[in-house]
Amino acid sequence: MEKHILVLTHGDFGESLLRSAQMIIGEVEEVTSVSLSQDDSVETFYEKIENEIAGISKDIVCLVDMFGGSPCNTALRLSQNRSIKIICGLNLPMFIELYNQLSLGEEVDNESLIKTARENIFDVTKKVFQ
Question: Residue 36 in contact with residue 65, Cβ under 8 Å?
Fold first, then answer.
């Protein structure tokens, strides 16, 4: 894979999402998850991420859970010094779509990722029973 995926989320959401993805697509490579815990200050979280990605020389695609939250804001701060593309609204289908794109050597298609995420948000009861 030519790029590295960085997952930044509140709590254990990112780590749990990666475990779930591995149940579906198997072992993942070139992926790092850093969780913001309740005890982390913004600086502590920034340092955790810096330490985690210090040895990564590849461009980074960062998936965050929500716009305006500390994970997103910290990614924006990191992007001032590194090549980091940031996409918010992380969900499992979005992660799998991104991982598949990168595994096939394709360029990251932001619109495709966003479309995948949106298409997987719906009322199941209405979809199945109407």
Answer: no
CATH number, domain 3-129, options 3.50.50.60, 3.30.450.20, 3.40.50.10420, 3.40.50.510: 3.40.50.510
Kindly report, residue by residue over 29-42, the tens digit of the pLDDT.
Answer: 999 999 999 999 99
Tokens 């997987």 sit on residue: 120
pLDDT in tens, 53-67: 999 999 999 999 999
Instruction: Tell me the C-alpha distance between 68 and 50, whole Å.
Output: 20
pTM of structure: 0.93
Within 8 A by CB and 6+ apart from 45, the residues are: 34, 36, 70, 71, 74
Question: How do the domains of the chain map onto residue ranges?
Answer: 3-129
From the list 18, 22, 58, the residue with the least C-alpha distance to 34 is: 18
Whole-number Cα distances in Å, 6 to 14, 40, 53, 119, 126: 10, 18, 8, 23, 34
Who wins on pLDDT, 34 or 1?
34
According to DSSP, the residues that pair with 61 across neighbouring strands are 5, 85
